[in-house]
Amino acid sequence: MKNDNCIFCKIANGEIPSRTLYEDERYRVILDMGPATRGHALVLPKEHFENLYEIPDDWAAGALAAAKKAAVLMKDKLGTDGLNLVQNNGEAAGQTVMHFHMHIIPRYKNDNAHILWKPTSPSAEELDDVLRQITG
Ligand code: 5GP
Ligand code: ZN
Fold first, then answer.
1. Catalytic site residue 40?
2. Which of 33, 50, 86, 88 to mutate to test the pocket of ligand 1 (most atoms within 8 A of CB)?
3. Which residue, 25, 29, 129, 12, is CA-closest to 69?
4. Ligand 1 atom 18 nearest Cα
5. Within 10 A of 97 (CB to CB), how many other CB atoms are there?
6. What are the CA-CA distances from residue 107 to residues 53, 68, 85, 120 (Å)?
7. CB of 39 within 8 A of CB of 72?
8. Across the strands, what pairs with 30?
9. Pick from 113, 92, 114, 88: which is nearest to 101 by CA?
């Protein structure tokens, strides 16, 4: 299903032109217009799913395979030194376009990109507590 009001549906299905580096029946991988690093790309499913909670398992698995194809291309052609995969869900997590997408962010030595989190130091009790809450 497509969503008529969704820009990523339109891009994924070719109704709006994009800089496409990989495409197959289910996915389009495009350059992000506001890249964190050179080559930053987005995996877009051609069907509309809002986020990880809504995307079916086979579509989620396929998105990772499409990301891998793009990652290999980037390693070969851009000479990247590393790569972050980022996938935001919900406003609180920084999702701004409500159509599932995966960020492929190529990394270069000393690129100074801000992607990773700052680790905290919870007590053993707090770690036990959160584990109990999730699994209990
Ligand atoms: P989010 O914050 O939702 O995970 O990421 C949305 C991403 O989509 C941002 O990195 C933003 O730069 C990118 N983006 C938003 N609109 C467009 C667009 O129309 N074209 C392209 N190529 N990227 C877009
Ligand atoms: Zn959509």
1. no
2. 33
3. 29
4. 33
5. 14
6. 28, 15, 11, 24
7. no
8. 20, 42
9. 88
